[in-house]
């Protein structure tokens, strides 16, 4: 939820997530939108949880080549959100350092 709260351009409405569950972990991946539109052709590719596991469904060889051209990383970057975890950890660390140094 923090990632969505810190995204200034996140669309209004209910948050959208992809969920990936493994034997050891559960990943909730917030996404900005469900679809990626390939700019050259206006083809629409739906990105579900398998997309965030590196498996995108394309309908034709032509779409596959366009996806390869863009790269899966760029496509996922467009539909997903960047994590704010590092910012949160840095904020917590900075707060702790400031608290300790102010008492010295």
What tags apply to this protein structure?
single chain; 104 residues; alpha+beta; two-stranded antiparallel sheet; two-stranded antiparallel ribbon; 17% strand
What percentage of the residues does DSSP assign to strands (E)? 15-25%
What is the rounded distance between the termini?
A: 36 Å
Going across the major beta sheet, what is the strand order? 1-2
Give me the count of strands: 4
Tally of contiguous helical segments: 5
Number of domains: 1
Helicity, as a percent range: 40-55%
Global mean pLDDT: 77
SSE succession:
HEEEEHHHH
- Specify the overall morphology: globular
Radius of gyration: 18 Å
Low-confidence stretches: 95-104
Main beta sheet strand tally, sense and closure: 2 strands, antiparallel
Structural class label: alpha+beta
């Amino acid at each position: 939820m923090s990632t969505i709260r810190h995204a200034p351009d996140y669309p209004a409405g209910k948050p959208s997530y992809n969920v990936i569950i493994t034997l050891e972990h559960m990943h909730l991946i917030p996404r900005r939108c469900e679809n990626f539109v390939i700019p050259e052709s206006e083809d629409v590719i739906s990105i579900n949880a398998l997309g965030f596991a590196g498996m995108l469904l394309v309908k034709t060889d032509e779409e596959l080549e366009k996806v390869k051209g863009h790269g899966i990383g760029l496509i996922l970057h467009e539909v997903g959100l960047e994590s704010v975890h590092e910012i949160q950890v840095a904020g917590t660390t900075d707060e702790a350092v400031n608290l300790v140094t102010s008492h010295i």
